[in-house]
Design goal:
Glutaredoxin; single chain; about 70 residues
């Protein structure tokens, strides 16, 4: 893996048993460079996140930018 200048913080908003979420997590891990931090957050553990993301998961936040599939 190539080194990066600073740590890159990636958050994956997911839920247990979501095959799309698992695929995105695997892809992120395969592309991660040294210094990349991946946090997987189960939206069912937080009612606010559940209400915000339940129709959009998997949702990925890289630093301050959030990505999800188009609807």
């Amino acid at each position: 893996m190539p080194e990066t200048r600073g740590a890159l913080e990636v958050v994956l908003f997911s839920k247990s048993g979501c095959h799309l979420c698992e695929a995105v997590e695997a892809e992120i891990r395969s592309m991660a460079t040294i210094g990349t931090s991946l946090t997987v957050v189960d939206i069912y553990e937080d009612s606010v996140l559940h209400d915000k993301y339940w129709m959009r998961i998997p949702v990925v936040r890289v630093e301050a930018t959030t990505f999800s599939k188009p609807r």
